[in-house]
Amino acid sequence: MKSKTGANRERSFLSLVFSWGYERGRCKGNPCKGVRKFTEKPRDRYVEDWEYEAIYKNASPRLQAAMDVAWLCGAQKADILKLRRQDFREDGLYIEQSKTGVKQIKEWTPRLRQAIDKALAVESKHPTMFVFHNRSGTKLSAESLRDDWSKAWEKAITEYANLERFTFHDLKAKGVSDYDGPNKRAFSGHKTERQVASYDRKVKRSPSLDPSSKY
């Protein structure tokens, strides 16, 4: 395991397993207790508009739709993939965030409607309730979306030599960073300003000193 983040996740998972076993008399203790986690550096990757477009133009229609929903709604991949037709409201798209439990209706915009229409237009042999679906009509899997993402990257990096890697999850952060409304926390669906700050990654502009203004 080379990734510190991955190692921390495995430690947490194993700790849960041993805790479950200890409570039921299946093991004598939890060997994960006392094992410190690696210090993780908060992710600060901001996806520039040109970078977004570089992947977008090389993406499949369903990936383009998913990218736009993630960006425009500040939504997680898991919450996008579980969207159903019943989540359409007259005034917007209903999204319940799996991490925070926050329920939101993301107001319709022309581009958001276009993204949803593009997702629904993906061919399906059977009627489906899922917005993002495969050809059999079942919910699109995270693995299938990951494959689409990898293919788009393979094409994009041949065209853009200076394109630095970013993840699909970074698109939620791009949405939060790009949102310029009065209440960023309401848009992001986070419960604390600290959580919002971790997703607000755009470098802030500030005035510089102008000595000439003194004379």
From TrEMBL:
The UniProt annotation puts the region (Disordered) at 179-215
Give the source's domain of life in one word: Bacteria
Listed under GO biological process in this entry are:
DNA integration; DNA recombination
One Pfam family name is: Phage_integrase
Keywords, A to Z, come to: DNA recombination, DNA-binding
InterPro entries for the chain: DNA_brk_join_enz (IPR011010), Integrase-like_cat_sf (IPR013762), Integrase_catalytic (IPR002104), Integrase_recombinase_N (IPR010998)
The major lineage groups are: Bacteria, Pseudomonadati, Pseudomonadota, Gammaproteobacteria, Oceanospirillales
Report what the protein is called: Tyr recombinase domain-containing protein
The terms under GO molecular function for this entry are:
DNA binding
**Domain spans labelled Tyr recombinase:** 50-171
Q: Does the keyword RNA-binding apply?
A: no
